[in-house]
Amino acid sequence: MRIAITGGTGFVGRHLARALASEGHDVVLVARGIDRRDPTVAKLHGARTVKAGVMEVETLRNAFAGCDAVAHCAGINRQIGAQTYPSVHVKGTANVITAARAAGVRKIVMLSFLRARPACGSPYHESKWAAEELVRKSGLDYTVVKASMTFGPGDHMLDHLSHLLYTLPVFVTVGLREKLVRPVAVQDVVQVLAAALIGGRLSRQTVAVLGPETLRLSEVAKRVGRLIGKHALVVPAPAAVNYVVAGVAERVMRIPLASLAQVRMLDEGLVEPWGNVDPLPEDLVPRTPLSDEVLRAGLPTAGPFTRADLRIPGVI
């Protein structure tokens, strides 16, 4: 089969591409070329790269031509200039649907967020929900995958926790009473996406994908600290402190330590989806634990944050 992946060079997109290519499928990586953390994904056997954003309908249509399905993984977790939540998540998804129809694609599988919902005061959550609704009402066969916080090699969670603890071994909680999360391994998310794309499963369903372990993010920070030899001092703090820090991080960091949307996610917890979802078949239920072996495999190169992580020239 030939599968197009929007956000094909992003975190989940490139893991999905590798999984599909390893099974002998052709992949079309559709991406703006902004994420260059793993350029080797473009060299996969059977892979073709199309430099395009989700606002370019005609380029998308050409990229989707001859594809059996589209994995819509493109998304943002902060707004910069014209890259807003409504433009990328809502208008962008509408464009993907239009292009898929025009190219004769039979199925679209959308990667969404566990707690996406309408009228909640968070532009991120609301735009993801609006995008889900567009997919569900598209007339195409579809699967919407509502994923929890996702971790693995090249992610933001383990990457930022590691660099943070090398920089300053302190973890500030989101809220004085930290909410629980169920982080999910990227390979488990990919397994669900691939089943929908290749196996024809989960047709016209919305499913939630959560990890098998329920814990606080500070516990993950402690485990990461132990693996890298840094004792993580956990400091409880009101969520308001994190919103301020996230606002600053969005302005000065290339990839924020935490975005405002991510603080909102942690502020309310990530242990169950919002709304009605279809049950996952038993063989697709995530089972990868947050074990030392799994965490170690996802850790980045050792070291603190550096000047290269900043967006403002001259700031160290």
Shape: globular
Work out the strand percent: 15-25%
- Helix fraction, binned, reads 25-40%
Gap from first CA to last CA = 48 Å
Biggest β-sheet: count, sense, barrel? 7 strands, parallel
The residue ranges in which pLDDT falls below 50 over 5 or more consecutive positions are none
* Fourth CATH level, the homologous superfamily of the domain at 2-150 and 184-209: NAD(P)-binding Rossmann-like Domain
CATH topology of the domain at 2-150 and 184-209: Rossmann fold
CATH class of the domain at 2-150 and 184-209: Alpha Beta
Task: Produce the secondary structure layout.
Blueprint: E1 2-6, H1 11-22, E2 26-31, E3 47-51, H2 57-64, E4 69-72, H3 85-103, E5 107-113, H4 123-136, E6 141-147, E7 150-151, H5 157-167, E8 170-172, E9 180-181, E10 184-185, H6 186-197, E11 205-209, E12 215-216, H7 217-228, E13 233-235, H8 239-252, H9 260-268, H10 292-298
Parallel strand pairs: 1-2, 1-4, 2-3, 4-5, 5-6, 6-11, 7-10, 8-13
Antiparallel strand pairs: 9-12
How would you characterize the overall build of this protein?
The chain is α/β, with parallel strands linked by helices. It has a domain at 2-150 and 184-209: Rossmann fold. It is 37% helix and 17% strand. The protein has ten helices and 13 strands. The protein has helices at residues 11-22, 57-64, 85-103, 123-136, 157-167, 186-197, 217-228, 239-252, 260-268, 292-298; strands at residues 2-6, 26-31, 47-51, 69-72, 107-113, 141-147, 150-151, 170-172, 180-181, 184-185, 205-209, 215-216, 233-235. It has a seven-stranded parallel sheet, with helices on both faces. It has a two-stranded parallel ribbon with strand order 7-10. Helix 3 links the parallel strand 4 (69-72) and strand 5. Helix 2 crosses helix 3 and helix 8 packs antiparallel against helix 9. It starts with a strand and ends in an 18-residue tail after the last helix.
